[in-house]
Specification:
Blueprint lengths: L1 H34 L4 H7 L2 H18 L6 H10 L5 H5 L4 H35 L5 H6 L22 H22 L3 E9 L3 E8 L9 E5 L9 E4 L9 E6 L3 H11 L9 E6 L11 E7 L4 H15 L9 E8 L6 H16 L6 E7 L4 H9 L16 E2 L4 H11 L4 E7 L2 H13 L9 E6 L3
Parallel strand pairs: 7-8, 7-11, 8-9, 9-10, 11-12
Antiparallel strand pairs: 1-2, 2-5, 3-4, 3-6
């Protein structure tokens, strides 16, 4: 319960404010049309359905104004940079942009349904009043001349012009500017400097682009016009900001990625043209804001941490004394041994660098293999006493199965009883639930004790 308050109090406050504004706008509009004297005669014709229709329309305008803001990725990246010196709880709200985008969409659907149903009742009431012959006030009002076009007529506010465009004008202009900027950046020339084919059907592309500047953990959108003009796919950058190129690792997991890898494997064909949009900020940018960082990658989800670990190597190489992070725990969970190949060289370099600098305890990495056969397990058991792991060549031995997260978090909490620990995940939602639960369980509300902050990559 302690870490839930630490991690989510601002999110709850933000959502409560948004819901409160929806309730206020709905109630205010409803009472205006239900109680105001100027709508008395209209209410005689339409009844309370008028107030329901207008109140839901007010909320539709409000949420239509908000719906595009969470998908303005350049705006979010700018805000993340602006908030870099603010509290981490404020920056974390930017990581829930897609969740908020979906909530706003659900609210629009709700009020759209209310609006449509209310107007169906309006038309039914109006039609019934027009056909009535009992001399009631509603029948008399509904048969008044329809020739009057006074826009301020209180008899039939349904005919008044829509003012909805004022609600979405500012955000609409902002989103158009966002799309123009992204289109301009995507058309800048990308030079592919190196192509590497790794085991487990993973392709590495090293590229350069004029004016390209990145931070650790950021991602880009990639398009290959020869495959599809419309498909843009997000990929986390695996290079470090200190390198003179930027790179991505692509695993074949669908038609588009398979087609892209095949295109680069054809030796006698020209290299496909690549368009790049970005980079855009993610939660992993905050990794160096924590004293202790726990990095958890599942399969190809290790890519953002490749950028982080490379950057750490450069920081140690150049003796960067401004590094706030004191210890990193890195967990990589894979299904097959081949997936370890392209990343083990980086870990070996870091392992050697930490030994030379006398900081062996700075990087604690743990590799887990979840898919294996009896031959691999038996071979690993027979060679367990060797200095290096038979699967990766690293000094840290590969474990079989999945991590026991309760044990891992308990160990980290005992080793850093007064630290702020950032937990970063790039992986499936089921793993996110387990890690989030452990963060809640092993944190304390007392700021003098250990606190775990959970962060998940969202594209």
């Amino acid at each position: 319960m302690g870490n839930w308050v630490i991690n989510y109090w601002l999110s709850v406050l933000f959502l409560a404010t948004w819901l409160g504004l929806n309730v206020f706008l709905f109630v205010h509009a409803f009472l205006s049309y239900e109680k105001a004297d100027k709508y008395f005669y209209t209410r005689e014709i339409l009844g309370s359905a008028l107030a329901w229709a207008r109140a839901s329309a007010r909320c539709l305008n409000f949420n239509s104004m908000l719906i595009l803001l969470p998908v303005c990725r350049n705006l979010l990246s700018f805000l993340r940079g602006t908030c870099s010196f603010c509290r981490r709880s404020l920056r974390k709200q930017l990581d829930h942009n897609l969740t908020f985008h979906k909530l706003v969409a659900y609210m629009i659907c709700l009020h759209t349904a209310i609006h449509i149903i209310a107007h169906l009742f309006n038309f039914e009431h109006y039609s019934r009043s027009r056909q009535a012959t009992d001399g009631s006030l509603a029948s008399i009002l509904s048969t008044l001349s329809q020739q009057e076009k006074d826009e301020d007529s209180w008899l039939n506010p349904i005919q008044s012009p829509n003012m909805s465009w004022k609600w979405i004008l500012a955000t609409g202009i902002l989103y158009i500017f966002e799309r123009i900027l992204r289109f301009y950046r995507s058309k800048q020339k990308v030079v592919i400097t190196k192509v590497v084919k790794h085991p487990s059907n993973v392709l590495e592309l090293q590229m350069s682009k004029r004016g390209f500047s990145m931070e650790v953990g950021q991602y880009i959108f990639v398009n290959c016009p020869s495959i599809s003009y419309l498909e843009w796919h997000p990929f986390t950058l695996t290079s470090a900001p200190e390198e003179d190129f930027f790179s991505i690792h692509i695993r074949a997991v669908g038609d588009w990625t398979e087609s892209l890898i095949r295109a680069f494997e054809q030796k006698h064909s020209p290299m496909p043209r690549i368009e790049v949009d970005g980079p855009f900020g993610t939660v992993s940018e905050d990794v160096f804001q924590y004293e202790v960082a726990v990095l958890v990658g599942a399969g190809i989800g290790v890519t953002p941490f490749a950028s982080i670990l490379k950057s750490i190597w450069y920081k140690f190489w150049h003796a960067d004394h401004n590094l706030k992070t004191q210890t990193i725990y890195f967990y990589w969970i894979c299904r097959e041994t081949g997936a370890f190949a392209w990343f083990s060289d980086l870990l070996a370099s870091l392992e050697h660098e930490m030994e030379e600098l006398g900081k062996v305890d700075f990087l604690n990495y743990h590799l887990f293999l979840t898919g294996w056969d009896t031959n691999i397990a038996g071979h690993a058991t027979l060679n367990f006493d060797k200095a290096t792991d038979i699967l990766t060549g690293l000094k840290q031995k590969t474990s079989f199965g999945r991590p026991m997260w309760d044990n891992e978090f308990s160990t980290i909490a005992n080793a850093h009883p007064k630290s702020v620990v950032g937990v970063f995940l790039c992986g499936p939602q089921t793993l996110a639930k387990s890690l989030s639960k452990c963060c809640h369980q092993y944190s304390s509300l007392d700021p003098r004790k250990v606190q775990f902050y959970f962060n998940k990559e969202n594209f």
